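Hi, here's the filled form for the chain we discussed.

Project: internal
Contact: R.S.
Residues: 142
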Amino acid sequence: MRPRRRPRRVAAGLSLVVALGAGLTACGQSGGTVQARQACTYIGRSLSLLQQAARSDGSVATSLRERAYLQLREALPLAAEAADANGQWQALMTTVSESNRVPEQYLVTALRAQCAVANASVGGEPPPPSSAPPPAPVSSAP
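And the returned structure, exactly as it came back:
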């Protein structure tokens, strides 16, 4: 009788390991979305400060741009965690990481688009692709 119990325990143990692995994988994917959304909270604050700076003058505008930059840099570790958990967030992390080399006003369009994806995704998955047709092929000149 004892030999029959052992295979049951082994099977139960393997089932538990498989279930935990599947559960952790699902958490990792949704965790990436959670982290991307958290990064987008900082990005949203940064973009708001940048808009205020555009309507301000002198030292006030400079101060607002500095605060916007700091908010954007706060988003970087969260964007990196999101990208680590799910590769779909690699573009978000890359865009935020470029903020130390590229003025933020040149990143605004990409940041807004990437955060729109993060905020629209459901269950860790990106929204479905656009229904827009692909661009026409470019003919090469002889």
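Let me know if anything looks off before we file it.
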